[in-house]
Design a protein that fits this description.
The protein is an alpha/beta fold. The chain is built from 13 helices and ten strands. A ten-stranded mixed β-sheet has the order 7-6-5-4-3-2-1-8-9-10, with helices on one face. α2 links the parallel β2 (about 60) and β3 (about 85-90). α1 runs parallel beside α2 (about 70-80) and α7 crosses α8. The termini are far apart.
């Protein structure tokens, strides 16, 4: 495909590796002693200049906990002046009225908060920090009071999947502009809880629940994230029900109506300058301290392979839904150690696969 077909529309940038929490699923294994950002302010501005040469994307200042970085708002203001839609992803612990005032002054358009349960017992267990739940609710109240829109991100494993619907309900009640349901990708500390990943069967049921919930939700925008096969489920359900379902668009969405889009319209830059297909995909395409961002985006072998669907293997390679789903490449890499392999947490058997298996069985019978 031509280069112009792939433009970065959403970039997450780890402006610091340090974090004040120790969450069980953290893709970066962050803590207060983690590697801090070695981007100087000048280097940070240069990166924004380099990105601006090919795109003016949503730029999410992430971490770690980005509010630990003292020059965060200077970076945010510079991005705003360059025409980027600037966002911050925070765990909420450090949010105050003063902090929100600085966010607004620097042009931050929206923030994201983490909420992994409908009660302190569930959320604080997930975040490994007593009081984290109350901190999130307090941050939401501060955002509302100051007119700052926010998104709620909720991550789920077996330990909290029973609380999905209640967490969604709570996100709406605290005034979230949108709710993103994250299905854990086992990278970083997440790799240590492989046994806690939601099963294929439950995963399918949860995505079907999300489809029905999304049709009924009229006030809060909702998206399943790191769950590309949701878009296969949605098309199947629409066909079964004879319905036309057009979910509302979200200005700051990473996808909208398509599954895995790593290296297609999104990417991740870590605190050392490494560019990855997404924040859960720890394979490096290049480093912005050594190369121009545009060169990495357009010429990386890794990125080019992810854009070549004909190279996908297993059921994903044979699937009729590959153009709307594509399977989670990060999950394939983490579980099967091959990012071009089939999505390991999808139980759908494509038509082509079924036909091939049936022909193999028939050939076996004929040879007897």
């Amino acid at each position: 495909m031509a280069k112009e077909e792939f433009i970065p529309k959403w970039i997450a940038w780890e402006v610091t590796g340090r974090c004040n929490l120790n969450c069980i699923h953290c893709r970066a294994s962050s803590s207060m002693t983690s590697h801090d950002s070695d981007f100087s302010l000048a280097e940070a501005k240069q990166l924004i200049d380099d990105i601006a040469e090919i795109s003016k994307p949503v730029l999410v200042l992430s971490g770690g906990e980005p509010l630990l970085r003292k020059d965060l708002f200077e970076i945010a203001k510079y991005g705003t002046e360059k025409g980027f839609r600037m966002c911050i992803a925070t765990n909420g612990v450090l949010v105050t009225d003063e902090v929100v005032g600085k966010m607004k002054e620097s042009g931050i358009r929206i923030c994201s908060l983490s909420l992994d349960g409908s009660t302190a017992a569930v959320h604080d267990d997930f975040r490994k920090q007593p009081g984290a739940f109350e901190a999130t609710l307090r941050a939401a109240e501060i955002f509302n009071r100051n007119g700052m829109r926010f998104i709620v991100n909720s991550s789920f494993t077996k330990r909290n999947q029973h609380d999905i619907a209640a967490t969604c309900k709570l996100a709406k009640s605290i005034g979230a502009h949108a709710w993103y349901m994250f299905m854990i990708v086992p990278t970083g500390r997440g790799g240590e809880i492989m046994s806690e990943l939601i099963s294929k069967e439950d995963y399918e049921g949860i995505l079907e629940w999300h489809y029905q919930m999304e049709k009924q939700e009229t006030e809060m925008l909702v998206r399943p994230t790191c769950a590309p096969h949701y878009y296969r489920v949605r098309l199947q359900k629409m066909k079964e029900e004879g319905e036309k379902f057009h979910p509302r668009s979200l200005t700051f969405s990473t996808g909208g109506g398509k599954g895995c889009i790593c290296a297609q319209s999104i990417c991740f830059i870590d605190s050392k300058g490494n560019v990855q297909p997404c924040s859960y995909f720890p394979v490096v395409a290049g480093n912005v301290k050594k190369q121009k961002f545009g060169d990495i985006w357009h010429t990386s072998e890794l990125f080019e392979s992810l854009r070549a669907f004909e190279r996908y293997k297993g059921r994903c390679g044979e699937c009729e839904y590959i153009n709307v789903c594509g399977g989670c490449r990060a999950r394939a890499d983490a579980v099967l150690e091959d990012y071009l392999e089939e999505e390991p947490f999808c139980n759908y058997v494509p038509i082509k696969t079924r036909k091939r298996l049936a022909e193999a069985v028939q050939a076996g019978k004929s040879s007897k």
